[in-house]
Amino acid sequence: MDEINDNIDCTPLVLEIERSLTYLPDLERDVIRLFYGLDAPALTLEEIGEKFGMTPESVNQTKEQAIRRLRHSGSRTGNRA
After folding, report:
1. What is the C-alpha separation between 64 and 15, in angstroms, rounded?
2. What is the DSSP letter of 17?
3. For 17-61, how does the pLDDT look when each residue is reduced to its tens digit (9 = 90+)?
4. CATH of residue 61
């Protein structure tokens, strides 16, 4: 399976994700990166909360707000999110 993944060029997808994240405020962008493991292994809501001094519920609300913003930004630009 690793062979297949090694042959896939993800560059356009990575560039699109990076572009989409520019629509987010810093905290929301950081939460998304950490939760989905975009720069490092993914963290739990609890781990992210500890990092930012937030409750897991607050982290989850921030994550959900970021996802709503990303969906909205995709519809604005004609992309599907």
Report:
1. 22
2. H
3. 899 999 999 999 999 999 999 989 999 999 999 999 999 999 999
4. 1.10.10.10
The answer on pLDDT for 81 being more than 50 is no
Domain range spanning residue 41? 2-77
What span, in angstroms and rounded, lies between the C-alpha atoms of 14 and 59? 24
Number of compact structural domains in the chain:
1
**Confidence band (pLDDT; 50, 70, 90) for 72?**
confident
For CA atoms 68, 31, 42, 60, the dihedral sign is negative
| 46 contact partners, CB below 8 Å, separation of at least 6 | 56
pTM: 0.78
Report angle CA 50, 54, 55 to the nearest 5 degrees.
Answer: 95
3 state DSSP class of 29: helix
Residue 81's SS3 state is coil
